[in-house]
Amino acid sequence: MPGTLSPVRTAAVATVATATLTVATKGEGFVDITDEARRFVEGVGGRHGTLLLFMRHTSASLTIQENADPDVRTDLVTALDRLAPRDAGWVHEAEGPDDMPAHVKTLLTGVSLAVPVVGGRLALGTWQGIYVAEHRARPHRREVVLQFLGETS
């Protein structure tokens, strides 16, 4: 037997709640937004459903990654730099040499996430956090749309 399925719980989608989170980045790296996502779900009274997150930019992204050891995030920046280096001979450099590599990194990591909400809590694993990944060298203000779909209390 490949796995065990928990009991299935069904709920009608009674609520759609939306907000925009503005995140100030310090340049290339990761910003933890897990607490803001939790507060949003709590604020709308989310019980069972889905939290959708959407990045409104093409040179920053969203990811779920380890939240315990900061070396993981340092190594991820290094890995993305190896996959999309600044000196790769990019044609598009409208906003500087980090512009096209930032677009490639966003392509690789993605701009949307879906996180289950179960019993009023984000169903993240023990070592998981939700992050804005800034792929540009200089600081930016990034907008993330948060949307809860589901049952509220």
UniProtKB/TrEMBL annotation:
SUPFAM superfamilies per the UniProt record, alphabetical: YjbQ-like (SSF111038)
InterPro entries in UniProt: UPF0047_YjbQ-like, YjbQ-like_sf
Record family assignment: Belongs to the UPF0047 family.
PANTHER family (alphabetical): UNCHARACTERIZED PROTEIN YJBQ-RELATED, UPF0047 PROTEIN C4A8.02C
Record's protein name: Secondary thiamine-phosphate synthase enzyme
Source organism per UniProt: Rhodoplanes elegans
